[in-house]
Amino acid sequence: MATDTDIPFEAALLARAEQVETRLRALLDSRPLSGEIVRPERLVSAMRHGVLNGGKRLRPFLVLESAALLAPGHDETPALTVAAALECIHCYSLIHDDLPSMDDDDLRRGQPTVHRAFDEATAILAGDALLTLAFDTLADDAIDLPSDRRAALVLALARAAGAGGMVGGQMLDIEAEKSAPDEAGIIRLQAMKTGALIRFACEAGAILTGASTGDRERLAEFGSAIGLAFQLADDLLDLTADAGTMGKATGKDAAAGKGTLVALHGQVWARKQLNGLVEQAHALLEPYGEQASMLKAAAAFIANRNN
Amino acid sequence: MATDTDIPFEAALLARAEQVETRLRALLDSRPLSGEIVRPERLVSAMRHGVLNGGKRLRPFLVLESAALLAPGHDETPALTVAAALECIHCYSLIHDDLPSMDDDDLRRGQPTVHRAFDEATAILAGDALLTLAFDTLADDAIDLPSDRRAALVLALARAAGAGGMVGGQMLDIEAEKSAPDEAGIIRLQAMKTGALIRFACEAGAILTGASTGDRERLAEFGSAIGLAFQLADDLLDLTADAGTMGKATGKDAAAGKGTLVALHGQVWARKQLNGLVEQAHALLEPYGEQASMLKAAAAFIANRNN
């Protein structure tokens, strides 16, 4: 439930989303790249449709605030670019996830999904292009980071997004429809499918600011805790919210017979678990004192969001 | 047509393919990655099906031979890893290209395509995972290259594979079925769809060995010339070869009404053009003398191949 204390946080999230939107628009401009290379109009339109859709930009927010925590007052331009690259990965995964052979969704945030607005082939290619653009963006020295940090960002994002991370989690999710996983299986699936990118978002702030290994690990652990919370909150919302609030079909997981921890242990357990995860996330940020208040608010927001 | 002088080249190509195969098998092993992260079996099986299929490994060959030209006697381990990463990109593009909403092919090298052997969702995810794995591999310091070279390889490959390269070319190819492009349009489409990765293959040898900008540009230009030759030879084969020789359906481009330069100017012109491109490619390698004989043979092979 939203309370008065959430309002400054939500305003901060909105302000960050606007910054990220500007950076994403620049990345998805159809101007020529280097030399005479021009990206096909239709492909760029489909990429823009899949990305510039009014998302909350939660993962970019986490990149920006993790970086601000570890290097207060730093020039935020590189962090914004990393945040935008991560959002390209998130959006590509939604485009492919919505395809007829995957979740077969017609709507995303109340708008036609990319394969409905364009066609299936274009949606597949737009996803492929966004995935590739994310690594292009991180590796480019236009980002103004030393090459070791650029390479580390590419590696960490590829690990989070690949077969041992998000894409692997999507595979497990599809298999879960045929054969319900046990509790350990559900936890593994969720840590990969949604947890890995959220963990990366927090870790990225440490990598791009050149923080110590200790800070990097602490931020990554914080990311893991709020990633778990994100998924638990999502499962609760799937049971309780209606389609109008969510901007997408709800109750689908239950209908598909997918096991969730909420289905396994009930809503009371899930809310208690959520509180525990927020406490754990907050405890990880104790060493940073007042500086960490924005990330702490993010943890609470993720656990209590209603859409 | 194969002649006696091609035999040493074909033996070299086969020997290189075996080396690349070994490196690819290691990358696609289903062992745990770092820590407890395990890639789902079904996903790894689909990735292996799409990659370990007896390909000629022409692009990896070009990486290895370009590197050998510029740094004779160097440790080839990093070059082999770069070559394998590039092949992951090539194979992902074939998996997605074969999908029902794209080219809708049932066979690839005489074997069922990934979506036929598994299913469509698994094929989409296997492609996504291979695309991501390529950048994971290039960015990893296990490759034993300085971080500036790793970042440069990621950037150059992402440019070659993304919306301004291969994926953009695939988009133009789909659009060409509805509205036939003019000669400039065909050249642009082909330079992007098949040319960009072949150009990268040659350029990568220069990047990974830390060669001079002059060498890098020369190798990239060589790659562009043989990329054009590759596509012209492909268009000729599509007209003249039968499905048994090619291991896939032939005559499809003509049936789909796709404009090719061969359709526009005829086979005699095309063969003349091919010879001109081989001459141009050979001229670019003149400064390297005898050392370049393997890459020169590759240019001739590409122009004269019969499958």
UniProtKB/TrEMBL annotation, chains A, B:
The keyword Protein transport does not apply. InterPro entries: Isoprenoid_synthase_dom_sf, Polyprenyl_synt, Polyprenyl_synt_CS, Prenyl_diphosphate_synthase. Its cofactor is Mg(2+). Belongs to the FPP/GGPP synthase family. Transmembrane segments: none annotated. Pfam families: polyprenyl_synt. Keywords: Isoprene biosynthesis, Magnesium, Metal-binding, Transferase. The keyword Membrane does not apply. This is Polyprenyl synthetase family protein.
